[in-house]
Amino acid sequence: RLRTPLGTTALRTFAVGLLAELDETEMNDTPDGAQVMTLPMTANGALQRGGDVDHYLFEAKAGQQVVFALTGTPIGSRIDSTVTILDESGATIASNDDGTWQMRDSLLVHTFVKDGRYAVRVADALDAGGPRDFHYRLTAGELPYVTSVFPLGGARDSVTRFAVEGVHLGGAASAGAAAAAAKPAAAKA
Q1: Rounded CA gap, 83 and 98, in Å?
Q2: Is the pLDDT of residue 180 over 80?
Q3: What angle do CA 120, 43, 127 make, to 5 degrees?
Q4: How far is CA 16 from CA 1, 27, 164, in A?
Q5: Burial 91-125 (b: 16+ CB within 10 A, else e)
Q6: For all residues of the chain together, what is the average pLDDT?
Q7: CA dihedral 109, 111, 117, 121 (to 10 degrees)
Q8: Closest by CA position to 172, among listed 152, 151, 138, 148
Q9: Which own/partner contact pairs does 175-183 have at CB distance under 8 Å and 24+ positions apart?
Q10: Residue 60 has pLDDT above 80, yes or no
């Protein structure tokens, strides 16, 4: 919520990122009208109407592994995203609809075969859209991303080793975490 001289706003989720941010501007419906992203970066956009798509241009090098993580659901969006990478000729070289079976936000990790300028396209899988309900944050770059953790929990008052999988983790294959006992609630008089 924001408190202003005119009152307090309705409850709304928002995100604060660590990377440079780019606000999407129309007309970026084709690769020719795409905005340029300098990776790593987060693009903030919205699919303004049904059938709307957004394009962003970026440079990639051969062998570079880039993570494209779209966030919609956690920030209150109705977008059922698809993320697609297009080469300079407009051909699709990689695409993702749902990042995992648990979420409809897209996650695409791609290793580029050759140097070049590419476009990433954001769309809704059902061609839905609307300026208020179909917003997103697309974070792209050679960023650490954990795709799997095991086990999913640990015992209280102990240190548990967790096996982690993902990309750009700096060689880390495990992490330790301590779970402290919950403090008893103070007695009320």
Answers
A1: 9
A2: no
A3: 60
A4: 14, 26, 25
A5: eeebebeebeeeebbbbbbbebeeeeebbbbbbbe
A6: 89
A7: -20
A8: 148
A9: 179/154, 179/155, 180/156, 181/156, 181/157, 182/156
A10: yes
**188: pLDDT strictly greater than 70:** no
Per-residue pLDDT, 10: 83
Residue identified by tokens 């956009």 is 45
Find which of 58-72, 139-153, 154-168 is predicted with most confidence, using mean pLDDT: 58-72
Please state, as a whole number, how many other Cβ atoms lie within 10 Å of the Cβ of residue 131: 11
Those residues whose C-beta lies under 8 Å from the C-beta of residue 32, and which sit 6 or more positions away, are none
Residues 6+ apart with CB under 8 A from 104: 72, 73, 79, 80, 81, 97, 98, 125
